[in-house]
Specification:
By secondary structure, this protein is of the alpha+beta class. It is built from 20 helices and 16 strands. The strands form six sheets. Strands 10-14-15-16 form a four-stranded mixed β-sheet. The chain has a three-stranded mixed β-sheet with strand order 1-2-3, with helices on one face. It has a three-stranded antiparallel β-sheet with strand order 11-12-13. Bound molecules: zinc ion.
Length: 646
Amino acid sequence: MFAPKRHLYADRAVSGAYTYNRKALDQLLTDVRNGLIDVVVVEDLDRLSRDLGDLGRMFRTLESRNVELHAATRGKCGIMEVTMVGYLSMEQRLKVTTITTQGRWLAAADGRNPTQIPYGYRRSALGPGIIEEEPETAKIVRRIFDLADKGVSPGTIATLLNKEGVKSPKGRLWSRSCLVGESKRWLGILRNTKYAGLSIYGRIETRRDPDDGTVTMTVRHPSRWIICENGKIALVDPDQWFRVHGRLITTICTKVRGPGNRGEFVFKGVTFCTCGAPMYGSFLRKDRARILFCSAARRGGCNNKRTVTAHFMEREMLRIVRDVIAAPEASALFETEYLARRDHVTRKVVADRTRLESAIALLERKLERTFDEDHSRALSPDRISKLQTRLEKELGELELELQNLPDLEEMPKLPDGIVADFRDAVEKLIGRLPIEKVGSSDMVLFQALRAVVRRVVVKMKPNGGYVLKIDGHLAGLLGSSSTGVSPTRRLVRTCPPPGRGFMGDTDRRTMFETIADTGSYDVSEEDWLVAEPLLGTRRKDAIPQRTVLNAALFHARTRVPLNVLPPRYGTPHGISRAVRIVLRSGALQRTLEALGSRGSKAVDGLDHSVFERRLKDGRANRNVRRPVRGKTSASRVAPSRNRRRA
Ligand SMILES: [Zn+2]
């Protein structure tokens, strides 16, 4: 039996009034153009489009490719059916819109509320569409108007209500836009005319572009508005309402709000405060460092006023991603799990397909037999037709099930090295923190990171440290296709207060300490024989001169400040003092020259400018006996003091 290949194209829950945003329709037309289709069957022509022009265009496309168009209700359709149905459905659409709009106006004129029930009201028992005051929320509406009338700004009112724990109409925190929304459409409580007992309809005219679906709104001339007065529903005095409205127009809404200063940060959108509100990023500091803060705290909905410097938190997070979530072991585990899951799904789909296909073949044979002569003789025509209907129905169900089997392409093969590449990208990103400019390639990585780290809750501690609670899984790298591979894992990481200064970052400190411990910049034994007499001797309990020389070389090679040299060279204070002494006396310079003339490896290509600069700045000449006070770095304070003395 000839079995044509069938394919179902369906745009679920999308209006047929327009042709944009209809992926299945686009796919169908593409397949038609590529000559993959002979016949298109639709439930009715208005499934394709309810617009005469669109239908006509589509019909021409089908016609030019010799594709037949059939409607389940009409059979084969020609240009006449297409034109008729197109015209009728357009007409009907217009009628429905007009009836709905007019119905609303009539209902409003009748004292009913045809739209959503506004905040402060509830449905009345008096009849459908009739609303009445809801005492609790109406009290809040009145308070909002009283405050606004006194000149309190909408933002302040929102904060006030949040602090009192009053919930907004949506059950969340109050915000400025809750009170004064978009000005053209008069959104927000302070702009709602119903509170003054006025229902206004037909103020806004919306038009939709038939090609891309963009909506434009224009305010109609007031003479065309439908205004229904219903003093019974007024919550505030109309005079007060107009006073507030006048203030909104003249003062509050004339303020041009500048571009937001919310900074892009790596984990934007997945970072939350312990109160559940998202954390925002902002350039609030003078040094242009981004800080993160609880978005609800600003509006009085959360007591957490602490902030976190974005790049400290980002560095911790990225390290966790690199070392835990995307670590080689985790990645191997994930790959195994993913492959197992993929295997399972594949096997199930293949088994289901085989089962369904054989069941369909069986039913088709049964159905065919009912048309046989022998068969028809054994049963009455009535029973045969009943049997055929039943078999056809079962067949249809099975075919639908076959079509709805998951597509194996939705679970792709794991791209080679996907996790390793991701880890490398994260590693590079860590090196770039704090990120100054976010490029488009960064955004791709950010998206991946936000998919891998699904949620971070930041709990800030009084000492400046914080606790990160992270929900994350590598499956995020594959998008939605890998859902169900395994549940996300939760990690808790306590971070100490971010360190400050040159060695504030632990990774950096570890790196320099490792370099120092290898001793690769040290002088050799032969060098030391030359250097020892030039440097002179020190007290027995002092840091040995050889260590002082090595420390000076390390300082010149790495530019690590003298007061934070690795512990290998002794206490930071002691070693920086010792180096400054040999520098001031000129012994260090003489030693380096002598070593240089010997062709020593230790001073090969050494940049002496770091010492020269110290001498010129007068840093090395200052009284080295002055104790270093508090946290202030001695070298940073010195120049200003010298200037003052001069
Ligand atoms: Zn919070």
